[in-house]
Design goal:
The protein is mainly beta. The chain contains one helix and 15 strands; from the N terminus they run βββαββββββββββββ. It has a four-stranded antiparallel beta sheet, with no helix packed on it. Strands 8-9-10-11 form a four-stranded antiparallel beta sheet, with no helix packed on it. A four-stranded antiparallel beta sheet has the order 12-13-14-15, with no helix packed on it. The protein starts with 5 loop residues before the first strand and ends in a 10-residue tail after the last strand.
Amino acid sequence: QVGGEFYITNYVYNDRIVRGVFDINGNLTSVDYNFGDNLGIPNDEGSFINPGALDSNQNVYFSNAGTSIRVITDLGTGGTPTTFLIPGVAAGGDYATALEVSRHTTDTSTLFVGLSSGEVKKITNANKNDGSRTITSVYNQVGSVSDIHIGNTEQDIYVTYYNYGINSAANSNIRYTNDGFLSSSSREGNFPDIPV
């Protein structure tokens, strides 16, 4: 986290989102164990092991909320946190399994979302609830996304999948792109057929 003013934890689902606040000397000054409840977030929203991501430049927390993404804004000291949903990120029984905030975009939030269907989506202006947000599908393959990592630029992306039996050139447990998924390649090499 940039600055170290607060921390966010999430137990299971979006049931127990907790915010702790630090003073200027780094001492923990308060812990709000009912933070999610106070914002009206449903206790059964999301997954049992619920992925989340923090944009510490914008003081925004993102988490899975079924076919939507839960957004909590204004988390910094002196802020008044509010929450909203980004609808339509997934459909049917699909849901987010991995979230990654780009550290390369600091004036707004760019969020990459990996889905249980194998699709990766890019959401620009993800911290905004004003109609400026865009959701774009950037990659799709067989399997479920386990992690997304942004490299030296927003074009350098690793995506991993946690399924057995996806170890071909077209579908692999470890994918890499250096052009934002205009193209991609397998980075498995002789890696065994195990979830990553």
